[in-house]
């Protein structure tokens, strides 16, 4: 799909099938998953080749930041901003003195916001460079909002992790065989949640890195077409991206801290299980020893003909089992 925008808003254009050229006052050409016909029409108008999705997805810096005969060819991975389908997809910019072409493959709130700002005259889009600045500024704002949302999510996740025992199922009795299963499931969910946030932050980091490189490269290569007021906007963008990068680094450190805390909880649960097994094995040793001694069939055993020998043996087995339990309870193991 193709949409055209001038300095004052949307520009009407003829269908691709008609073969008509694009209007001259179309300053910004936005291509959303363009067809071959749409790409060819834009190429005829601007004289620049529209890169394919595969070309925009290349990871080499020489492929993402290029100066060609007619202008700049820029690309970066960009998050989809959809938390239900949080992925990276390529975003391309083709910048010439007369046109800005954006090539994308998913709907983006930033693009819609820039369109609205241009139509409402809430932003200067009088040149291709200034239109480019509007798009990048809106992308940076969206990434900032996304990081703020993630920061709130991590605060909630931190509360869930460190209040894990306080949030246990009310009324669960000691020894209830469903409690360990519930705790195991809760810990699995916490671990998956920490992992999802870590993956999301890695994708945001890739987007910020790409925008930072694009901004610096464009400023250095477009000095001759920058007008008064453009260069300070590039500097402000660079500062914003740097501050967001620092904020993302702190969030990544928080994710690592929460991961360590979650793994610590899992280790505690495992230690509790091993402790129970250790107590059970120790408690079972003295009764087994007593039973083994009095189970020997020697002829001259003092208690063999004793009337109270059998009750004595049973009592000794019970006492030898209860004594370790009382000891472990006193030491706080139970």
TrEMBL record:
Q: Which residues cross the membrane?
A: 276-296, 308-328
Please report the record's description of how this protein sits within the membrane: Multi-pass membrane protein
Locations listed in the record: Cell inner membrane
UniProtKB keywords: Cell inner membrane, Cell membrane, Ion transport, Magnesium, Membrane, Transmembrane, Transmembrane helix, Transport
Q: What are the GO MF terms of this UniProt record?
A: cobalt ion transmembrane transporter activity; magnesium ion transmembrane transporter activity; nickel cation transmembrane transporter activity
| Catalytic reactions on record | Mg(2+)(in) = Mg(2+)(out)
Q: What's the chief localization of this chain? A: membrane
Does this entry carry the keyword Cell membrane?
Answer: yes
Q: Is the keyword Transferase assigned to this protein?
A: no
Q: Which domain of life is it from?
A: Bacteria
Report the SUPFAM superfamilies cross-referenced here: CorA soluble domain-like, Magnesium transport protein CorA, transmembrane region
GO CC term (a single one): plasma membrane
The similarity annotation says: Belongs to the CorA metal ion transporter (MIT) (TC 1.A.35) family.
Name the UniProt record assigns to this protein: Magnesium transport protein CorA
């Amino acid at each position: 799909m193709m949409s055209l925008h001038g300095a004052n808003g949307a520009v009407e254009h003829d269908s691709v099938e008609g073969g008509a050229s694009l209007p001259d006052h179309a300053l910004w050409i936005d291509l959303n998953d363009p067809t071959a016909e749409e790409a060819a029409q834009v190429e005829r108008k601007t004289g620049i080749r529209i890169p394919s999705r595969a070309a925009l997805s290349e990871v080499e810096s020489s492929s993402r930041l290029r100066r060609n005969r007619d202008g700049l060819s820029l690309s970066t991975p960009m998050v989809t901003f959809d938390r239900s389908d949080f992925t990276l997809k390529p975003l391309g910019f083709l910048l010439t003195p007369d046109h800005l072409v954006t090539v994308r493959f998913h709907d983006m709130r930033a693009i819609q916001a820039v369109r609205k700002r241009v139509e409402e005259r809430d932003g200067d889009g009088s040149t291709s460079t200034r239109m480019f600045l509007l798009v990048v500024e809106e992308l940076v704002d969206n990434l900032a909002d996304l990081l703020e949302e993630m920061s709130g999510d991590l605060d909630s996740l931190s509360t869930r992790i460190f209040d894990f025992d306080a949030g246990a199922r009310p009324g669960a009795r000691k020894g209830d065989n469903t409690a360990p299963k519930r705790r195991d499931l809760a810990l699995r969910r916490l671990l998956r949640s920490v992992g999802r946030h870590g993956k999301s932050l890695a994708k945001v980091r890739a987007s910020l890195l790409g925008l930072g490189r694009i901004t610096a490269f464009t400023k250095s290569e477009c000095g001759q077409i920058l007008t008064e007021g453009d260069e300070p906007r590039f500097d402000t963008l660079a500062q914003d991206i740097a501050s967001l990068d620092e904020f993302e680094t702190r969030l990544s450190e928080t994710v690592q801290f929460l991961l360590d805390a979650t793994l610590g909880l899992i280790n505690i649960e495992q230690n509790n299980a091993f402790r129970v097994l250790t107590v059970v094995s120790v408690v079972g040793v003295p009764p087994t020893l007593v039973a083994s001694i009095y189970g020997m069939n020697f002829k001259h055993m003092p208690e063999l003909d004793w009337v109270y020998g059998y009750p004595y043996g049973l009592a000794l087995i019970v006492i030898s089992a209860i004594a370790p339990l009382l000891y472990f309870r006193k030491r706080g193991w139970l």
